[in-house]
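Usage

Read records sequentially. Each one opens with the input sequence:
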Amino acid sequence: MRSIILIILSCVALQSTAQYNVDTATVKHMVDSINRLLDRAVVHKQLDRLQRHYASDFVFTHSTGHVDSKSSWIKSAMDTSVHFISREHDSVYVELHKDIAIVAGTLTVHRRTKAKDTGYALRYIRVFIYRNNRWQLISHISTKEWELNS
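and closes with the structure output:
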């Protein structure tokens, strides 16, 4: 009986740590892909993808100091009066810490409103957590923002 319990506990321990045994480069690539997927989902207004990969406790701190929750950010992203033409990443770096991934990079945004087309770039830090068998974004902090020359 004792050996059966040890075998069961070993299996549970192996299953709970399975994600940590995955190749680090593969996990970094996966997180980077989800990071980019989220911004494509904003452009294409894919609500299901945003709901899936933004954590319920997501916080978005803009460079202006404005803070959005998951619901307020998604509501803003889904606003039909604003059309994101593109949201492209550059110089992305992913740093792993078990079930936490810190992502830093530059995001270039082009959008169209009824008034005009605008473009800007921003430096950001994003934090993802491995929760519910998937990577979810829990924090986005824009550290610097600048307008692009038209």
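Summary fields computed downstream for this record:
- The radius of gyration is 19 Å.
- The beta strands are 54-61, 67-69, 83-97, 100-112, 117-131, 134-147.
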